[in-house]
What does this fold into?
Amino acid sequence: MNNRQDLLILGGGLVGMTLALAAARKGISSHVVDRADPADLTAEGFDGRASAISTASWNLFTNIGLAPRLEPHGSPIASIAVTDQMKPGEIDFTPEDNEGTLGRMFANRELRLALFEAASEEPLINWHAKANVVSRQRGEHGVSAILESGEELTASLMIAAEGRGSPTRDEAGITFAKWDYSHRAIIAGLTHERSHEQVAWEIFYPAGPFALLPMLDLPDGTHRSALVWTVDEKDAAGTLKLSDRAFLAEVEKRMGTMFGEITSVGPRSSYPLGFHHTAKITDQRLALIGDAAHGIHPIAGQGLNLGLRDVGALVDVLADGMRIGLDPGDAQLLARYERWRGLDSFMVALATDGLTRLFGIPGKTASAVRRLGMAGVQRVPVLKDWFMDEARGVSGDLPELLKA
It folds into this structure.
């Protein structure tokens, strides 16, 4: 039986599944193939893995019908505080009262639950979970993938959404610039005595940023934050092996008593930090989205949001083309997507890389210069507004799906 769909999305994570849902809202059908077991990805418990959802990304979730499912689980980001080693010279990004928040924080588990629930109810999505792709084909008239089970899936356009190690991208021979920061991000969930007051903290140390991200309080009133702590690669294994008491002592050295006593720490995990950016994001009947196309440092919390901008742009392009009778894999449509997303994602990637290097310069003089610069930004409203618009994701040429 020929079960051909418009899209063949390889990778059903946060970006890939959002693409499938956004496409379905425009009447575009898809196969979604992912190796993972959804039950593992949505297991109970908070391990600190969380994502900052910008204003523009929240507009996308609203426009595809996810907001009612997600709203009860998100913590607003009322302001962002940026400081160099907790010394004077802090920047406080707080919007005016009528401008709303700077975004929302969600546990990744809650995002997945909402996406998976919506996908399971969507007739235009054929979801193939716990499935391995053993071969891929792209030709003049369509694309296909054969699963380990022997099933063949066909479509008009293939989407690589498998993340940083995308085999689809590599098989297509798409080259990319890449380097390793020789650091790891350690992630954990914290509970603490005082409220975070919906403030996201970015505390810069020479070894890397130390971020405290506001999570929703538990029903019993327990205050929670997600910790993303960047450490040198050589120190990561030892830091992960620390007892809870020793780990919390190290955390408190870096954040002081702003949240009162840290009462508990959840399971710790880590991942290596690196940069990559592909030379192009399309090929014959192929489009790259999310980390398959660009992997950036989490310093500004923009990784997922960058992928969601890809989603919005690609769906806009495909829907416009299909409305006038073009095939989803048409080269003209892919060229438009390339032009739209190639430069924007590259500029964001360069900016985060520059920030990483700037705040990683050790020494008192470098710290003093950074703090002087931050104090200058704090005093210039137009600069602060520009940074806040960037954090919200509302600058530049926005896809329709990312607009309110």
